[in-house]
Amino acid sequence: MRAAWYERPGPAAEVLQIGEMEAPEPGPGEVLVRVALSGVNPGDTKKRGDWLGYGMPFPRIVPHSDGAGVVERIGEGVESARVGERVWLYGAQSYRAFGTAAQFTAVPAEQAVPLPSGVSDKVGACLGIPGITAHRAVFADGQVAGKTILVQGILGGVGSMAAQLARWGGATVIGTVTRESDVDRVDPAAAHPVALDQEHAGETIRARAPDGVDRIIEVALSDNADLDAEVIALDGVIAAYASRHDRPAIPFWPMLFANVTVRLIGSDDFPPTAKRDAANDLTTAASDGALSIAISDPLPLERIAEAHDRVDAGTRQRILLTVP
What we know:
about 30% helix, 10 helices, globular, 2 domains, seven-stranded mixed beta sheet, Quinone Oxidoreductase, Chain A, domain 1, alpha/beta
């Protein structure tokens, strides 16, 4: 099969290779999926660059956890009716060597989620890492109907999904952007935008939520901890999935007096039930037309290094690869 891989960490153009390799076989409880589109996420490029210095967990890695395609074959214990089914994929390269940057990938059957006829492969290939992370951040502490949710970094991949899922779940959403010039990029039907470079951003948020926001979806805990403490409601939750610094300082006493819960969100290690619930809700929300995702024109597999560089450069559009 045609595939892309790397055998050492480093810059995309230096370590990513493209060629022929043997296709995987589905093991017990697995399905083999013919990949149509492979989704590229920041987590994939960070692994390729060995950003935490953990080294290579496998001698060869076919990258990318997300994708969409069709079930080609099944392993022992999987219903034969799944052959020929359109699916979206998550976790293909989570603690596994072979992801979706290949013509075929084998994954546990539950990680190949049936894709409704009204949902495109493009949308399906974008649901995995950002969607499941967003779902966990929004819903891990219960339903959100009638609550007010603050999404820090609403224009990002996880942030935009979190805002849409929160609205789908019945919440009022406030979303922050870095600059005043970005405010117009936020759909006012999805969220009330607030620019972090304006004076008194906390007061602007409090004007929308006088009693404080019930939950905060946090993309940069180290940067926003003081603002989070200023606007959080009593017994509120800060669900943080990223931080610019690995040892963020927090305003301990204001958070303590507000009885704040800080929930840290690491998508590879969510409980299996949380991943299943997220997959079900994401499929339903996509089928309902509740998710709008900015997707760049897909690149061919041979341009995988360019795709990684675009993600590393901080593009706001989702990057996909077409697989021949």
